Amino acid sequence: MFCSACENIFENYIRTKPQSSPAPEYDMKPDSRWPGVTAFTMRGAPYKGKDTTVFGHVGFPGNPTGEKLPAVVLVHGGGGHPYPEWIRIWNARGYAAIAVDNTGYFPNEIGKGYAGTESDRNDKYTRMNGENGWYSAPDNDRVETVHLPVEEQWLYHAIADTILGANVLFEDKRINPNRVGIVGVSWGGVLVSQIVGFDTRYAFAIASYGSAYLDKGLSRLDKAFHRPEAAFWRAQSRYADSNVPVLWMCWNEDICFSIQSNSLSYLDTRKSGSLLSIRSEMNHSHTHTWIREECYRFADSYAKGCAPMVACLSEPEGFGTVSFRIAVPREGSLKATVYYLTEPMKYNSDSQMLNDWHTTQAQIQGDTVTAKIPEDADSYYIEICQQIGDSELVTSTSYITRNPMGNTPTHKAPFYPQQPATPLEDIPWVEDGGLVSLFRTVGCIGDSLSSGDFESTDHNKAMGYHLAYHDTYPYAWGEYLSKMAGFTLRNFSRGAMTAREYCETYGEAQGYWRPDLACQAYIIALGVNDLFEPTMGYPLGSLADVHEDWHKNALTYAGYMGQLISRYKQIAPDAKFFLMTIPRDLDTVNHEGLYELSSAQAALMYDLAARFENTYVLDFRAWAPAYYEEFYQSFFVGGHLNVLGYVLTAKLVAAGIDHIIRTHPEDFARVGFIGTPYRYRPELTERISARRKTEEAAPKAAD
Fold it and tell me: Which end of the chain is more exposed for a tag (fewer CB within 10 A), N or C?
């Protein structure tokens, strides 16, 4: 569980004076290939009650002028280590450099030299489990421990230990603290994307492959961030307060991260002077980053005052003929190339991109680049290559797709500015109800959070002070939604409602199955009382409990939900159904059993949506803000939403349905026919047209 202060969770580490010591036993042999690079250990973030020891290397270039040095913090990727080879590359370019092992490893050959290049076998490294009183930090778990307390997660330790390692440089009197940058590769790029949101001391940053916005990516490492439990680690939520310029560098066919994420990261940090460099035929490794000249030119432009790379002053928009402006560099020649795909980007289960990139040339005249995007292009970006001697410096535009959801970065909704992961961050904020306004009648079926329930502390002579609950329908989120979108709401909800009670007694008793109350759409938000309340709880069940004849459904939550949908389909066969998952809250996070049950309920909603036509999932578990301490303080009174919470919920529902409609517009083309005797069958169109032509061509009978 994350506390309300988690936005500043690393502040203490940023201010901590490093506790580091030379480790000569790990130093290199006298004939080392990397002179000036030495080993050290430092105290890391505590883990499960034990102090950790972190291993690292640091190196300095010769400094005959006596001027304070620029420096870089080097952050390795998955399976990597603090390679002295990498440090020496930066030393040779005039930078001091430091790297710590962000996965808790040490060289295992004390006094015999140690592994120093990416090509060295990983068995040259080991972990510490109490030797010499040293304990290792957690290993890279690919964000699989986000359900644990934050201090037990690998990401937390990797970030904290990198910050502590950076402090070694910031405290060194030989270093100019205003000219320190940070560079990361792969998972190291992910860490850099996180760190610049927490620690803004850096003059520049370079994130290769990994980036922010991984919840928008398509490849294998992106998927770890798709889960709602990883919402806190969506780095983009902290960029509003960061001014660190970042070079987002990536490979257009990367096997670990797809370029949507890099592009969105760039768009969200352009204000700070960030650049995007999408390379073709780059491959994925530390070495393939180290050889890219873009890294060193970008660093030199901020740390040494050298001429910058070409930058995009504006971005292309849409398709057809597009143009944008660039800052023309003082040296080299320029060439512009359009890279495009003819189908939506796809990855297979082995995280291999299935598309082929196509290219066509663009034109540069003065500071303007113009390109005609091919008609069959589904997405594209434009590369500007700056040729200086034998070096190529590549700058890219953002990645543009025909799906507008993939083109723009997240912007925090002003209604909820403090939440780390903006509610429905991939969906535009909907103030007018969005495309929910397609519907004329909407039915809402839910419990107390759908009936506008208020919790109060009342007093009477018999009971004294006691909790009371009030269904206050004018304040229900459905009521606010109906005012936003202009439809007629039929609220079939009631406090403490379950799917079982609704099916067995309540729906019939209230007459809610009557055809004259049929709606064009239904939003069903039941499950909390069914599954979590000890006095009401009963089995979750599965899709196997749902049958064509609802009378045969099993007496489980799945069976009753299937019955509820089936019975409403009897009176409104073409209606659209939106099934809401249970949002993340304090109870489901703190209680392992409830957490698993909440996950299973969400999976069941998707199963039901696949089982029934015209049925979709409002995945509040993935989209909505987490109902943690900070959320409760603002949007709850007692155990129920306050007015602000009901208004927010209405906006979230509107945004979710709007997104579903825009994602599946063909499913909603005939919404106007729902509840009418009219039908349109595309397969009959040609037959009707042919009949009309025959009738018109036939000779008319004489009067």
Answer: C
**Count of beta carbons in the 10 Å neighbourhood of residue 212:** 33
Tokens (6 digits) for 231: 């919402």
Count Cβ atoms below 10 Å from residue 110 Cβ, excluding itself: 13
196-228: per-residue pLDDT in tens?
A: 999 999 999 999 999 999 988 988 888 788 877
Contacts of 144 (CB under 8 A, 6+ apart): 224
Higher pLDDT, 325 or 34: 325
Label each residue of 491-507 as H, E or C: ECCCCCCCHHHHHHHHH
| C-beta separation of 648 from 642 below 8 A | no
Q: What is the mean pLDDT of residues 262-285?
A: 95
- Give how far Cα 241 sits from Cα of 96, 199, 238, 271, 323, Å: 28, 10, 6, 11, 31
Task: State the helix-helix crossing angle for 477-485 and 643-663, rounded to 10 degrees.
Answer: 50
* Nearest residue to 565 (alpha-carbon basis) of 496, 503, 506: 503
90 has pLDDT over 80: yes
Q: Show Cβ contacts of residue 547 under 8 Å, excluding neighbours closer than 6 positions.
A: 553, 562
Region 403-419 average pLDDT = 47
CB atoms within 10 A of CB 517: 16
For 698, the enclosing helix (H) or strand (E) is: none
CB atoms within 10 A of CB 62: 10
- The stretches of 259-406 forming alpha helices (DSSP H) are 259-269, 286-290, 293-303
- What's the CA gap between 549 and 106, in Å, rounded? 63
pLDDT tens profile 501-529: 999 999 999 999 999 999 999 999 999 99
Instruction: Provide the 3-class DSSP secondary structure of residue 72.
Output: strand
496, 520 Cβ separation under 8 angstroms: no
- DSSP for 74-89? EE--TT----HHHHHH
Residues 6+ apart with CB under 8 A from 345: 218, 258, 260, 353, 355, 379, 401
* Single-letter amino acid, residue 76: H
How far apart CA 7 and CA 681 sit, in angstroms, is 54
CA atoms of 644 and 634, how far apart (whole Å): 8
Q: List helix spans (H) across 79-232.
A: 84-92, 154-171, 187-198
Secondary structure element (H or E) that encloses residue 392, with its range = strand 391-396
Tell me the pLDDT of the chain averaged across its residues. Answer: 87
Instruction: Please tell me whether residue 208 adopts helix, strand or coil conformation.
Output: strand
How far apart are alpha carbons 384 and 335 in whole angstroms? 6
Residues in a beta bridge with 364: 369
| Of 264-268, 368-372, 561-565, 627-631, the least confident | 627-631
Q: What is the 8-class DSSP label of residue 614?
A: T
418, 451, 457 from 497: Cα distances, Å: 32, 10, 21
CB atoms within 10 A of CB 544: 11
Strands 400-401 and 379-388: antiparallel
Element (H, E) at 567: helix 557-571
DSSP element (H, E) containing 654: helix 643-663
Q: What is the mean pLDDT of residues 130-148?
A: 88
How many whole angstroms separate alpha carbon 400 and alpha carbon 265? 14
pLDDT at 64: 67
